[in-house]
Amino acid sequence: MKKSHWHLEDIKKQSRLFNKLDPRIKVIGFFLLIALSSFIKSFIPLFLNLGLAITLVLLARLPLNFLLTRFMYFLAFAGVFLIVLPLMTPGEVAFTLGPVVFSKPGLIKGAVIGIRLVTIWLYISLMLGSTGFRDFLWALSRLRIPPEFIGIIEFMLRYLALFSEELKKAQTARKARLFQEGKSLWHKRTFKILGQTIGMLFYRAYLRGERVYRAMLARGFTGRWQVLEEKKIGRKDVVFFLSIVFWVLMLLDFEYHGLAWRLIWRLLE
Amino acid sequence: MKIAVEIENLMFFYPDGNKALDGVSFVVPERSKTVILGPNGAGKSTLLLHLNGLYTPNRGKVRIFGKLINAENIREIRKKVGLVFQDPDDQLFASTIFDDVAFGPQNLELDKKEILRRVEEALKAVDMWDLRDRPPHHLSLGQKKRAAIAGVLAMEPDIVVLDEPMAYLDPRGQEEITAILNRLNNEGKTVIVSTHDLDWALEWADYVVILNAGRVMAEGDKSILTNRRLLEQNGLKAPLLVTLFEDFEGKLGIPTSLKEAKQKLKKIML
């Protein structure tokens, strides 16, 4: 199935292996894996962790299109660091491209961060793709994340789509009246129009917020968010969670030379 | 005739001092299909927001089934009066349609079984059950409007108020909404709709209130929609049936529904 825009609930239905697991366990489990990915620096545990992420994604059969679309967003934010790091980090010169010098420590740093990012992107995709947005929020509320925070995530996702639609409409309306962006970055009129558009969006967002709140009050909202569903943690969930804990401890032990054993001994003492 | 809504000398000013409602008084009969008509800026939406206590009048009274709306009974009133907003995107905020429809019953603190029953019933009533797991932003406008109605139906109100439910809908979407409104009325609910579509109002309504510049200009059965002068004085356009039949008023009279118009035409043709 080829789609340009993926809907998380569809991905969840399509995915295998993890979609039936308890959302709370998945959120904690993948959070541990994400945290682990940001701690380790040595190449062997980094590659082992990346290997696990790729294997799990393959086992979960997440659609490639969905993964790539998410990766593009990810790259847009993180890509800059990957390019800049080898140039900015001082140290032994690895190679030069004309006047641009790539340092060896910079390349190593870039590679470490690159592997981390890919691994984290895979784990996040896996967590959201196999859980769906609704169950993800449910898990957060059951894990005692403040309801205001969950509300913000829920509203953001719901209304971001709406505001981007409004922005597109405004752009189309400008084009229909022959507006052309300035060719230089310092074009005064383009800046003015851009500022007005952003201002209009903020104002509309404010008005929309007022109306949404009124609509919530009309349906008896008293300021308390309720959770309807209950789920039970089963044997499969426990096995999944313990496997992740084992994996995390194993890689930490590898990275910090015996850390896991030291932690276990301390717990047993 | 039992009264569902009674409005007495209602005045409302916006914070900027703009007068939105200027001594509005009228009644809505119980189990009626009431239409509130008026041009843009007449005060229709502002008036509707008073019906379940979202706006507090600066002066005047609003009674629901004889009970004056006040801070003590606001919860009770919001249970009785369901308000469907003009733009469904203002109303549908949850991550799925199911969760959004469950939002009202959850606020009523009902038990889980009852919430699930109400959500299922409401979604089936508007033919949206199969789309319950969809997020609102993946629906068409017609589907969003139906989902917004379901969100209100799940609260099982006695009075359903809809602000311009036909706005921007295609003919099929309008038919679907009309069918839902008729069903609600047949179930014994009082349905109040604001609109400026007079053709639709003439066909559907059995009670009409005309609002202009924050004042009630006329109220009564739908025969007032055949008064071209009254309508034009209040920034409204006479329905097509009225325009068509007014030249033959002496001979045929002016019909107040398509069915009646057909009968009149058949009579003279056959």
From TrEMBL, chain B:
It is found in: Cell membrane. It is a peripheral membrane protein. Its main location: membrane. GO terms for cellular component: ATP-binding cassette (ABC) transporter complex. CDD domains: ABC_cobalt_CbiO_domain1 (cd03225). It comes from the Bacteria. Keywords: ATP-binding, Cell membrane, Membrane, Nucleotide-binding, Translocase, Transport. GO terms for molecular function: ATP binding; ATP hydrolysis activity; ATPase-coupled transmembrane transporter activity. InterPro entries: AAA+_ATPase, ABC_transporter-like_ATP-bd, ABC_transporter-like_CS, ABC_transpr_CbiO/EcfA_su, Co_trans_ATP-bd, ECF_ABC_transporter_ATP-bd, P-loop_NTPase. Residues 5-238 form the ABC transporter domain. GO terms for biological process: cobalt ion transport. It holds the Pfam family ABC_tran. Coiled coil: none annotated. Belongs to the ABC transporter superfamily. Probably part of an ABC transporter complex. Responsible for energy coupling to the transport system. Part of an ABC transporter complex. Responsible for energy coupling to the transport system. This is ABC transporter ATP-binding protein. It comes from Carboxydothermus islandicus. The lineage of its organism: Bacteria, Bacillati, Bacillota, Clostridia, Thermoanaerobacterales.
